[in-house]
Design goal:
single chain; 266 residues; alpha+beta; Outer membrane phospholipase (ompla), Chain C; twelve-stranded antiparallel barrel; 6 helices; globular
Length: 266
């Protein structure tokens, strides 16, 4: 069956977004007491495969299921986690500060919103920022991430705050976390609102402004025997405030992602 350029483009964006999610479980992999930090545990190359199930927030979007390969690298000074590139600016047993460069995959085609006249395509972008990870007493940790649009798509910013706690069950590590994401007005208006040119062309006026999204998540890592293979899962949900869920572009009040992965570490 022939595949249209638009369908292939959507699939390619989804594949890239899935590869980016390779970074999430690693970022949620805090150090246990009396254990080496995650950086030491993951140093070197890793390859594997991922199954992603994502519930997309936009009108007309359905749950998408994808399976793709993944690759990662963790060095003393730099790392590559899927499509997230980073540089360790400061690293100690209890504290890390990294520079990040990562894509933001939130684009959509105006043709997918047939009931909204005058709508224009939204474009993906590249974010640059800092990520801070602080170990607390016990097995808990705090993470703070600050990102800014580096390509001028939205000219927006995002702040992320999370609290996570590590449970060890033998060699299996379970890390639930709670957090929140702050989206600036420029960022939220671009991806969840309507532009001035669209309103002039007949689209309804909607600008959510700056918003805060609560977030819940959990990751599970299980080494397979004494081999270099690791099985992991990740589930995360973002809860939309009314100013986002009321947008004519949005369907529902949450978006969720589930990942099942298998990786081999060299």
């Amino acid at each position: 069956m022939p595949v249209s350029r638009e369908s292939f483009g959507r699939y390619l964006r989804s594949v890239c977004m899935l590869t980016l999610f390779w970074a999430l479980p690693q970022a949620a992999y805090p150090a246990a007491e009396n254990a080496a930090p995650p950086r030491a545990l993951l140093r070197g190359w890793s390859v594997g495969g991922l199954l992603l199930i994502i519930d997309q927030p936009y009108q007309g979007k359905s749950t998408r299921v994808l399976a793709v390969p993944s690759v990662g690298f963790e060095g003393d000074h730099i790392f590559l986690r899927g499509l997230r590139f980073g540089v360790h600016l400061k690293a100690s047993q209890k504290f890390t500060l990294d520079f990040l460069l990562q894509p933001r995959f939130a684009a959509f085609k105006a043709s997918e919103f047939r009931n909204i006249p005058g709508l224009e395509d939204r474009r993906d972008s590249m974010d640059a920022g800092l990520d801070m990870h602080i170990d607390l007493p016990g097995a808990s940790a705090i993470g703070i991430t600050v990102l800014a649009d580096a390509l001028g798509r939205s000219n927006g910013q995002e702040w992320r705050l999370r609290y996570e706690y590590l449970f060890n069950f033998g060699r299996t590590r379970v890390t639930p976390w709670v957090g929140m994401r702050w989206l600036s007005s420029n960022l939220a208006d671009y991806y969840y609102g309507t532009l001035a040119s669209e309103v002039s062309a007949g689209a309804p006026y909607y600008r959510p402004g700056a918003v805060i999204l609560p977030q819940l998540g959990i990751s599970v890592f299980t080494p397979l025997g004494h081999s270099k293979w690791t099985l992991f899962t990740l589930f995360t949900t973002n809860f939309f405030p009314a100013r986002l869920s009321d947008s004519p572009l949005v369907d529902g009040s949450t978006d969720s992602t589930f990942i099942l992965g298998l990786s081999y570490h060299f």
